[in-house]
Amino acid sequence: MKCVTIRYLTSLDLDSFIEVARTVPYQRINSDLFPGVEVWIRRDDLLDPLISGNKAYKLLFNLLEAREQGADTLITCGGAWSNHLHATAAAGARFGFRTIGIVRGERPQVLSATLQDAERFGMQLKFVSRDLYRERSQPAFLDLVGLEAANSIFIPEGGANFAGAKGVRLLGELIESTLPISFDQLWVACGTGLTMGGLSSSIHSFPVCGVEVLKAGESIRRDARHWHAALKKFPRPPDLGQEWQRTSSDTDEAPSAATGIKLVNEYHCGGYAKYPTYLREFQRSFERQSGIPLDPVYTAKLMFAVSKEVAAGRISPGTRMLTLHSGGLQGRRGFQLIK
Ligand SMILES: *Cc1c(COP(=O)(O)O)cnc(C)c1O
């Protein structure tokens, strides 16, 4: 066993982020839930105790831009159990930004554990009507909810902007440069599809497969393609992140057609945040056998999908599958888990 020193995110600059992200462990999963194949997991849930998973990567360039612009406040929005809201509140507290979280609906009598944390981290919560919340992608949104945009940056729900996508591209580059063995496939959980699009733009040694965690129609594929194409259009300046440099020789690749984006949509288990008994039981078996905690919304469905695909014979024996632990463990508190 290689010994890893986990360092956590203690300062806001690209090189130290990369240094920390390079120490994220890869773990082989020992479990009879994946017979005949080799399953590994990259533990980005361990990147940092509070700013973890894919949301940390989506925040990175947003935070760097905020600092560069001299902004002192981060404004964002999300639901009562939002991993993004939680990570943004923690990042603001850690790196010295005020934070404002716009939340849908009336302020409840008792806040969710996520929102309690957010307030404890110093985030100011602003509850807005469902009608207003629906306008969250309009440029006038802050005006509409009565917030002052001066000295602040607005980060969209889930960290889904170009800066967010750049962070996920960085994750893909880090994955390519830290693999413990060679893999045949990478599997990730998809909410919006941004993570899928970002990873597929920077991972070239094997295909990326996405598990849709909600009934999304074509929107996840569309978003993934959109971010993939956007990133290809604006390659990373080579002087960014000096520790490791990759060449972007494939920037003129046909953008939306040949993205190699593969999605499976049979494992949403009834819809977003739906948690039927069979998923609950799967999660318990997985956690007992592997010792790795999952979140019911994203990573439990990811591992469930991988297990089912293997069982259905759609993955050839001996395939080396890498999965991404995209974090979200704070959200476990919103569910009744089997002990
Ligand atoms: C937000 C989130 C995702 C989904 O990311 P997208 O980029 O929206 O597809 C996956 N896993 C976890 C734990 C998340 O919090």
Tell me briefly what this model is:
The protein is α/β, with parallel strands linked by helices and 339 residues long. Helix content is 36%, strand content 15%.
What does this structure look like?
This protein is an alpha/beta fold and 339 residues long. It has two domains: 14-50 and 161-335, Rossmann fold (3-Layer(aba) Sandwich), CATH 3.40.50.1100; 54-159, Rossmann fold. The chain contains eleven helices and ten strands. The longest helix has 17 residues, at 162-178. The relative contact order is 0.16. The model is unreliable at 241-257 (pLDDT under 50). Bound molecules: pyridoxal-5'-phosphate (PLP).
Helix and strand element order = HEEHEHEHEHHEHEHEHEHHE
The name of the CATH architecture of the largest domain is 3-Layer(aba) Sandwich
Low-confidence parts, pLDDT < 50 over ≥5 residues?
Answer: 241-257
The portion of residues assigned to helices is: 25-40%
Count of individual beta strands: 10
- Give me the Rg, rounded: 19 Å
Largest beta sheet, briefly?
A: 6 strands, mixed
Name of the CATH first level of the largest domain? Alpha Beta
The gross shape turns out to be: globular
Strand-pairing-aware structural class? alpha/beta
List the total number of helices. Answer: 11
Structure characteristics:
four-stranded parallel β-sheet; six-stranded mixed β-sheet; Rossmann fold; 1-aminocyclopropane-1-carboxylate deaminase; TrpB-like_PALP_sf; binds pyridoxal-5'-phosphate; 339 residues; 11 helices; alpha/beta; D-cysteine desulfhydrase activity; globular; 10 strands; ACCD_DCysDesulf
